[in-house]
Amino acid sequence: MDKIQKNQQFHRFFCVFSLKSPSQALAMEIILIAAMDPNGIIGHKNQIPWHIPEEMQHFKETTMGHTVLMGRRTFESIGKALPGRKNIVLSTDHDFAPPHCQVFHTLEAGLSSCSNQEKVFVIGGKIVYQQAIALANTILLSVLHREYAGDSSFPDIPPDRFRLTTVKECGTGQQFTLKTYCATSTA
């Protein structure tokens, strides 16, 4: 194993296991995962404005077997619970009860419900990302190489709280860049 691989392995270990948010008592890693265009656009009229199979495959492989937490509008845009994952939906509507999902009315309640999980992936939308970024340990972004029209964007990443740890170019058709941000130890 060369020096670069050892350094990447250390950063992966350090990011995942050492940087739990000190402001929360939860024992899991909170990961925001999103795809966005170069301007931060993540959606348009409650839909994803692109179809990139390789990026969707990355999302599926990364989240499979874990908990995914999303807002009601994100759930409605997907249309069903994501198979192979525990689905948590946040909604202020007390009558909202989609099949194969657990519904909670606050981010804190949703996160508390999965405190026995190793990881929880926050998958959107904009409001949920805005609320969860303060609690996140890791941000996984697929940054597309093309601009799209949209009305929903990913929140700004606080530079004093996160550092960019890995960058990887992906895609054979429409290309995208995978960026991993880890919370800093001073957060």
Features of this protein?
single chain; alpha/beta; 187 residues
What report would you give on this structure?
It is a single chain. By secondary structure, the chain is an alpha/beta fold. The chain has one domain (30-183): Dihydrofolate Reductase, subunit A (3-Layer(aba) Sandwich), CATH 3.40.430. It is 25% helix and 29% strand. The chain is built from five helices and ten strands. It has helices spanning 3-18, 53-63, 72-78, 107-112, 126-132; strands at 29-36, 41-43, 67-71, 86-90, 102-104, 119-122, 138-144, 152-153, 162-170, 176-183. The strands form two sheets. It has an eight-stranded mixed sheet with strand order 5-4-3-6-1-7-10-9, sandwiched between helices. Strands 2-8 form a two-stranded antiparallel sheet. α3 links the parallel β3 and β4 (86-90). The longest helix is centred in the N-terminal third of the chain and has 16 residues, at 3-18. It is globular, with a radius of gyration of 16 Å. The model is unreliable at 1-26 (pLDDT under 50).
SSE order and pairing:
Elements: H1 3-18, E1 29-36, E2 41-43, H2 53-63, E3 67-71, H3 72-78, E4 86-90, E5 102-104, H4 107-112, E6 119-122, H5 126-132, E7 138-144, E8 152-153, E9 162-170, E10 176-183
Parallel strand pairs: 1-6, 1-7, 3-4, 3-6, 4-5
Antiparallel strand pairs: 2-8, 7-10, 9-10
Main sheet characteristics: 8 strands, mixed
CATH-defined architecture: 3-Layer(aba) Sandwich
CATH topology: Dihydrofolate Reductase, subunit A
Note the total helix count.
Answer: 5
Total number of β-strand segments? 10
Number of domains: 1
